Amino acid sequence: MSRIKGFCCNYTLSVEPEALKGEGLIPEDVDLERIPCTGRLEVPELLDAFTQGASAVFVVGCQIDKCHNLSGSRRASKRVAQVKKILEELDMDPGLVEMFFAGRGETEPVVEAARIMASRAGAGSRPE
Amino acid sequence: MEGLEGKPGQFTAKVFQEPRYINEDLCTACGMCTMYCPRPVVDTYNERLEITRAPHIDYAQAIPSSYYIDAKACLRVNFETCNLCAQTCTAGAIDFSQKPKRLELEVGAVVLTPGFGRVDAAVLEKYGYGKYPDVVTAFEFERLTCASGPTEGHIVRPSDNKTPKKIAFLQCIGSRDETCGNGYCSSVCCMYAIKEASVAKEHEPDLDVSIFFMDVRTMGKGFDEARRRAQEKYGINVIRARVPRVDQVDGRLALTWTSDDGNHHSGIFDMVVLSVGLESPEDAQILSEIADIELNHYNFCSTRVDAPLSTSRDGVFVAGAFQGPKDIPESVTQASGVAAIASELLAEARNSKTVSITYPEENKALEEQEPRIGIFVCHCGVNIAGVVDVKAVRDYAASLPGVVLYEDPLYSCSQDALKSIAEKIKKNNLNRVVIAACSPRTHEPLFQETLRSVGLNPALVEMANIRDQCAWVHAQEPDAATEKAKDLVRMAAAKARLLTPLEQPTVDVTPGALVLGGGAAGMSAALSIAEQGYNVVLVEKSSQLGGNLRRLTWTLDGENAKAVLKELISRVDAHPGIEVITDSTVESISGYVGNFTSTIATGKKTRLVNHGVTVIATGAREYKPKSYGYGESPRIVTQLELEEKLARGKSFLKNARNIVMIQCVGSRGDDMSHCSRLCCTQAVKNALKLKELKPDCNIYIFYRDMRTYGFYEDAYREARRKGIVFLRYSPDKRPEVVKQSRGIKVRAFDRLLGEDIEIPANLVVLSAGIAPGDNQELSKILKAPLTSDGFFLEAHAKLRPVEIAVDGVYLCGLAHGPKSLEESVAQAKAAAAKATIPLAKGKVAVAPIVSRVDQDACIGCGICESLCPFNAIRLSKVGKRKKAQTITASCKGCGICASHCPTLAISMGGFTDEAIMAQIHAFSGQECSEG
User: Fold this and answer.
1) Which residues in chain B have their CB less than 8 angstroms from residue A23's CB?
2) Among A67, B695, B788, B902, which residue's Cβ finds the most Cβ atoms within 10 Å?
3) Residue B849, class by beta-carbon neighbours within 10 Å (0-12 exposed, 13-18 middle, 19+ buried)?
């Protein structure tokens, strides 16, 4: 299991995650999963990523007012906030889970999110 | 142009001319004004990648070779201040008193050649252009790859000026895209992308270049071969996919695409080049109103297939990209063609306004005296004098033997300097002149003219290039440059002493043309030459005129091909200037430009024809398929056979449910290596016809790349819309035609499904390519080279597209390569235009630099004859032995014969061995003994 788990909305990232890794644009140990809508992510699923061994988890959804499914990313950001609380209760750093937003088809914010989380988790160095 | 009134032969064109503020007759293009001007302006010629100044010239080869002032930026024009350039211009060429002019021109014909416009920036924005700095247009990239461009040919990313490692070219930007209104194919982008990619790879061998095509449309002559070479030599990746958008990630560019097996791919690139298409000119609408001509639905000039260069208004013609997107060879061809059409219209007026120059008689006595040399060392403003100590060179020249005059004019090529040189030659009785200035390539004719004007043979001037080859290249070392200039002058003077007058013979031209081949091209060429007032003998191999056009029933734009044919034949038959000889072939052609004699064989009879020029229009033929079961069933036919069947009626379609067409039969490596250019359009045309006659039949077209270029793309789109199924195959998985007891099946690999499919076919139509005619023999008779594909080879693809290497022989139609009817007609007109040049002049001037054979030294070995690429030297019997003889009218002065002659019997005018040896000895400082 990779140390950082990312979920991103189908309508953000336009490039295959493998191509980004191949070019060294995101760290090797980031597992980026494209899902149809971030709105379907449930709290247990996010927590499960931690139990599976991830040291940081992030979600990238549509811009909050431009969500493809209208309220998907808003819903996701609420779930992420809940997970933050749970982490606090568990005496973990709430910064290890984060919500990001990206415009339609934009790859750059996703790459940026992956890097931020990698540095928060102290995982790997920032690639060139 | 602001207005056009009148009728063909008598137009009045109102033209508005903006001032350039620089007198083009005085400007010497030295560049001083640009250097001193304080006003920077964006260099639009360099695609805004560089800065220039208000007075500038777009590029060194611009015509006229004069600078102009950008009035919008100029301080003097706008605020009456500055005036710096006028003060620095030593030629006094800057003239702020110029005013806009309104001219009324009396003309007989008008030719519209406004070129093409730019694709709207909004279209490019979709691909990140303007937003991401490393997304550039192909025009910008072209400037980057150009050695004289803003980066001197270094490929750099605009964002950080670093060399990119991975470049992607995106094709069809603003072409084949209905969302921006450009449904047509721009025809040129596939090839230019491959060219730019090759140039980039040549410069940066480690570059990774991918080109994203919809179809690879390299259908021009030799283009497919060039593409294949580029792919093999440079390893350029060809990807068939349309990239929807460009995204920037961390300063690099991300692309995603879907290949035709349905898989998604992504890639990160350092630079993206948008292969933008050719748009109609920006002011097309205005032009159409002023010239009163019709435009097509894409705002290009509307023309007909049988008259591709005529607009809807009589006497107004069109050529180039305004008629439809096209490449340079085709534009140049059309330009020549349109000249022929205008000449047809204005044949009567030919030579009515000619001014001829008379020269004083040559002073032979003076020429034979001991050399009296005049040396003129040119300053060329600061171009030479800024580096070389011109006065020291001039004084040095005084010390050379035979020199009686030495001067240093500021600009020796300016009108008044030329005048003063002429006067000084006369006054000092000079009989040899050395001009130490720039390149003889550009300026020698000018000085030769000066010599002629004072009765000296033009061969008695020698140039030393102390600008391009000295001052310019040694700008950092003025002392050494001055020494080199002295060397060059000493060498030129040594050669000048041995210069001899050369004859400038002229040869009379037989005022008639021989046209070989009576197809659409041959007939069009014959008609054009005859309309211009010269006799034509038209030789046709078969029993009737028409050639391949006989087999066509309709043209793609719905015109009746039979009517086009009938019209052409009746015009040829009715023309008193054209003699048609059918059932005949050419047995031999002897002679040279202006004086050909041909033997025409009709059955067993032969007759001789004298003619001044020869036009090859021998055509080509439909390839006879060797595969796909052709000939084994009446249900497997070629496209032309289908068209002939359709012309007879549609009853054979009664039970046809499925019709399969297979492209590239014989072409593109199947048997012949070239692309036959026409078959895609031909297939689409026939498929649409079939669909019209029998709407419920299913039509499948197996293709490799659909090459429906230009406006033919409309038909392709229509075919797709009407439900015709297009399936791409790759050459290693060709469709198979399987004959069964009951009917035929076509088995093929469907790339979308990823599996083999079988289509029961009631009719299989093979798009057989265009095979060259039997050109070998004619090629030998004329010494006209063939391409590796067996078509005739033009002298230069872009500069001389309808001439061949042998003077006086012209080329058009399918004999030159596969092309459509309208392209054949345009090319035929172009060949006619070129062919009438010697006919109209009446004399062929022979360049003085030709080879000469010393008949005493010649041993008749024939090496020269076998090597001459221009058929210009041959053996003939002199007394008992064979001797070589130069046909001066055909000689190009290349010197191949002279350099190979084992007995040194051949010398080149103006470049004798003695003179060259003297020049070499002078370089080492030794004076050569005479001879």
Assistant:
1) 252, 268
2) A67
3) middle
Shared domain check, B416 and B428? yes
B287 contacts B281 by C-beta, under 8 angstroms: yes
How far out from the chain centre does Cα B852 lie? 32
B64 contacts: CB under 8 Å, gap ≥ 6: B24
Looking at the complex, does the CB of residue A106 fall below 8 Å from at least one CB of chain B?
yes
Domain that holds residue B23: 19-99
Q: Measured between CA atoms, how close is B212 to chain A, in angstroms? A: 17
Residues B758-794 have pLDDT tens digits of: 999 999 999 999 999 999 999 999 889 999 999 999 9
- Kindly state whether residue B357 falls inside one of the protein's structural domains: no
Reading the block at residue B266, the tokens are 């992504």
* CATH number of the domain encompassing residue B86: 3.30.70
What would the two tokens of residue B904 be?
Answer: 């040194």
> Cα separation of A43 and A77, whole Å?
11
Q: How far apart are CA B774 and CA B1, in angstroms?
A: 48
pLDDT higher than 60, residue B651:
yes
SS3 B121: helix
Same domain? For B311 and B215 the reply is no
Residues B375 and B480 in one domain: yes
Q: Are residues B331 and B436 in the same domain?
A: no
B684-743 confidence digits (pLDDT tens) = 999 999 999 999 999 999 999 999 999 999 999 999 999 999 999 999 999 999 988 888
Whether residue B248 is contained in a domain is answered as yes
Q: For an interface test with B, give the residue of A107, A112, A128 to mutate (most B CBs within 10 A).
A: A107
Give the 3-state secondary structure of A3-39.
Answer: CEEEEEECCCCCCCHHHHHHCCCCCCCEEEEEECCHH
CB atoms within 10 A of CB B152: 9
Out of A16, A20, A108, closest to residue B264 by CB:
A16
Number of domains in chain B: 7
Does some domain include residue B108?
A: no
Q: Residue B359 in contact with residue B453, Cβ under 8 Å?
A: yes
- In-domain check, residue B114: no
**For B466-475, how does the pLDDT look when each residue is reduced to its tens digit (9 = 90+)?**
999 999 899 8
